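Table S2 (text version). Query chain:
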Amino acid sequence: MRVFFAVEFSDDEKNQIAHEFQLITPKIKSGKPTRKSNYHITLKYIGESSQEDIEKMKHVLREVASHYQKFNIELTHFSTFKKGTKRILYLGTNKNNPLNSIQTRLDHVLNTLGYPLENHVFKPHVTLSRKTVLDTVQFPQIQSIEIRVLSISLMQSHHVNNQLTYSRIFHQELQNT
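Corresponding structure-token output:
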């Protein structure tokens, strides 16, 4: 099964993200919008994994989460990055938040188990649309969305009724403040 580590959102947070996404929807010529139920921030993509590997990842998740307290981040702006010939449209976070530290620790602990280190700079974001073509380079201002990060999840990427679906396999709460 294909797996990744992520920060999940509450239904209210997903609704706020969807509301802000509507501001830019008229500017999208083509693309594959992310379903609201799939909104998340990826911390590390793993890919195909066995059940044995997943059990190891659960232990990694427990270890990493034990070093962090619950915290808030803000989604503050629209942006894009290039992937192939198309663009990924996303909502980006405020610069100084613990997600970078969590991702780095997760990456290094997984590396001790033989998983390769990331070879790009981690930019925490929520993917809104893939294979996106926009008719503007000007992004509308958004109302900042405060996200409460309570846990880290191990997620499965799979198709259900021909729709890409992200399902939680396991999650670990962060420490109380």
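Notes on Table S2: The longest strand covers residues 71-83. The chain is about 25% helix and 45% strand.
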